[in-house]
TrEMBL record:
Keywords: Ubl conjugation pathway. Belongs to the SKP1 family. It comes from Perkinsus chesapeaki (Clam parasite). This is Suppressor of kinetochore protein mutant. The keyword Nucleotide-binding does not apply. Residues 183-202 are annotated as: Disordered. InterPro entries: SKP1, SKP1-like, SKP1-like_dim_sf, SKP1/BTB/POZ_sf, Skp1_comp_dimer, Skp1_comp_POZ. The gene is SKP1_2. It comes from the Eukaryota. One of its GO terms (biological process) is protein ubiquitination. The lineage of its organism: Eukaryota, Sar, Alveolata, Perkinsozoa, Perkinsea.
């Protein structure tokens, strides 16, 4: 018996096929499959926010993880740790080796298609990368000028990307919280060391 497939039409008009089992990582696709009245293989599911180049990456990730466990990512991320130290499996680490613009596009696709494990993976990678960069470097990479966004642009960005923005923001908050805890612990150690030295010299 041949494997069931779904047809996905991308934003650039390309129709791509994907095994049904892999496609069901996407809650969006799964819901459309469940609601289909006929043979899903005969229908095309539109993905107006996902290009063929990015969908190819999404399909690659979904097909691999049909037979392999997804990464169970630490929350919060460990300070100073690599992705592999935070529960990301080796295959996913290799998968993330792409230009940052492409990574953001995969993250947006995962958000639109509602693929939570892939979204969390991309958010962890972005959060890990962001914490080591300056504001100026981030502005340049994201194409944001010093004047920032207009209120209308900010509203549209938040509306279109609310889900993954929250994921990334939560991870960044966890990172900052852990930084503060680590700094407090180091300050306490220094204070105790100073007290011991003072007692020894008394």
């Amino acid at each position: 018996m041949s494997e069931e497939i779904v047809k996905l039409r991308t934003s650039d008009g390309v129709v791509m096929t994907m095994p049904l089992q892999a496609a069901c990582f996407s809650v969006l696709v799964k819901n459309m499959v469940d609601d289909a009245s006929g043979n899903i293989s005969d229908e095309e599911i539109p993905l107006p926010n996902v290009s063929s180049k990015i969908l190819e990456k999404v399909i690659q990730w979904c097909e691999y993880h049909v037979d392999h466990s997804t990464s169970i990512i630490n929350k919060p991320l460990k300070m100073g740790g690599q992705l592999r130290d935070n529960g990301v499996v080796e295959w996913d680490i290799k998968f993330l080796e792409m230009p940052e613009k492409e990574l953001f596009d995969v993250m947006l696709a995962a958000n639109f298609m509602d693929i939570k494990p892939l979204l969390e993976l991309c958010c962890a990678s972005v959060a890990s990368s962001i914490k080591s960069k300056t504001v100026e470097e981030l502005r340049e990479e994201l194409g944001v000028g010093e004047e920032g966004f207009t209120p209308e642009e900010e509203e549209k960005i938040l509306r279109d990307n609310a889900s993954w923005c929250k994921e990334a923001a939560d991870m960044l908050k966890d990172i900052e919280k852990e930084k503060a805890i680590q700094a407090a612990a180091e300050a306490q150690e220094r204070s105790e060391g100073a007290d011991e030295n003072a007692e020894a010299n008394a």
